[in-house]
Amino acid sequence: MRTRIGIIGAGPAGLFLAHLLHRAGIESVIVETRSRAAVESTIRAGMLEDWVVRLLRAMGLADRLDREAHFHDGVSLQVGAVRQHLDLAGLTGGKQVTIYAQHEVLKDLIAARLADGGEIRFEAHVTALDGIEGDSPAIHFTEAGDARRLDCDFIVAADGFHGPGRDAIPDAARREYQKVYPFGWLGILCHAPRSWPELVYARHEDGFALLTTRSDAIQRLYIQCEPADPIEAWPDARIWDALHRRLATPGWSLTEGAIFQKGIIPLRSFVCETMRHGRLFLAGDAAHIVPPTGAKGLNLAVADVRVLARAFERFYAYDDAAGFDTYAATALGRIWKGERFSWWMTTMLHRDPSETDFEHRIHAADLAYVMGSTAAQAALAENYLGLPFTD
Ligand code: PHB
Q: Which InterPro entries does the record match to this protein (predicted)?
């Protein structure tokens, strides 16, 4: 098999890239280890930056999003029992918070890609990448037990944090930066009506809590927990008890519902420099991870492939490879700002058992400052809804 761009991974980075390339007349093939059903049902976060929504609309891929997503003018921050609305739309010239679950985005992108005649090979397990330092790299994979080879001009590893892509860059050519937080998030989905009209990010002495939504009848909630907690340590009654305590405000209470999905994720910040080696490029979680508190994961992945798609267009249209040389630096400029914002939101809103009393007070002051300052709120709003592009 042969294609121009061999993409590993049918997540946000891989699928957005395939669509952008298709619109530039550049063919690609996606190789994905999971089944289509697994990709379309994996529960992730759900906040799309304003420009991502506009990009989906410009690509003609936002019909269902426009019908089913939830658009809010802001978010609420809460400290103790004090809840305050931040007017993010007013602070950003009208940008909205769009809540549309990541797997819903993926369903739309997969359906449209297949309708365009695009090739996505599900349940295809990568065994090796070769030739990335030469002119004709190849992805080796197995499909239903058969060994296959996809020859390409370039390989894009959009294969997530645990995928094989990043490891194909020699150790000496990459440097990794990491922070592992001493807490995790327990996330639930439940059948309940909405309790509050927008997201609530709450700092509480017991730990962080986040109220978000999926539909009028399905709500998504998260609470800070021990990262190593087994899910059995959190029977439903304990989850509701923690949520009620952390989110309570005078005269308001959270509406409970039947929990039908729950899981615990660790929180990590991670960046791999570089994002290119020869004819291999990294995009999305393969190169960087953020804790979900800033809602940046998918958005940073799409920002990477926006830059990368342009580099490929420039190469195929004008035989100009300059975009490949600047890809990592351009992408990393935005990534580090996303890392900073995600780290800042996380430290400001969580209870860190390992922090000093001084740091604890500073993080509380950080939040008090945001709640009392329009200037600080404008900075939060700009980062939350998507920094402007400088390229
Ligand atoms: C979500 O809706 O799942 C969500 C929203 C915002 C976050 C994290 C998760 O910061």
A: FAD-bd (IPR002938), FAD/NAD-bd_sf (IPR036188), RIFMO-like (IPR050641)
List the residue whose alpha carbon is closest to atom 9 of ligand 1: 45
In a domain, 110, yes or no: yes
Residue 216 Cα, ligand 1 centroid: separation in angstroms? 16
Instruction: Give me the residues paired with residue 188 across strands.
Output: 221, 262
Task: Indicate whether residue 155 lines ligand 1 (CB < 6 A).
Answer: no
The Cα-based distances of 386 to 249, 275, 361, 383 in angstroms read 30, 22, 29, 5
- CA–CA gap between residue 87 and residue 75 (Å, rounded): 7
pLDDT at residue 65, as a whole number: 98
**358 in any annotated domain:** no
Nearest CA to 316 among 3, 50, 32, 36? 3
SS (H, E, C) 207-275: CCEEEEECCCCEEEEEEEECCCCCHHHCCHHHHHHHHHHHHCECCECCCCCEEEEEEEEEEEEEEEECC
Query: Can you give the residue range of the structural domain that contains 44?
Result: 5-71+97-177+269-351
268/253 Cα distance (integer angstroms): 31
Assess if residue 173 is contained within a domain.
yes
State which of 220, 300, 385 you would mutate to test the pocket of ligand 1, scoring each by most atoms of that ligand within 8 A of its C-beta.
220
Supply the pLDDT for residue 390. Answer: 79
Domain count for the chain = 1
We report the CATH number of the domain holding residue 125 as: 3.50.50.60
Taking the model in full, what pTM does it have? Answer: 0.97
Compute the residue count for the chain.
391
Q: Which two tokens stand for residue 180?
A: 């592992």
The string of pLDDT tens digits covering residues 275-306 is 999 999 999 999 999 999 999 999 999 999 99
Indicate whether 340 belongs to any domain.
yes
Parallel/antiparallel/unpaired status of strands 28-31 and 119-121: parallel
Residue 296 among the catalytic residues:
yes
The per-residue DSSP string of 112-135 comes to HHHHTT-EEETTEEEEEEE-TTSS
Gap between the Cα atoms of 388 and 132, Å rounded:
33
What confidence tens digit (pLDDT) does each residue in 310-341 have?
999 999 999 999 999 999 999 999 999 999 99
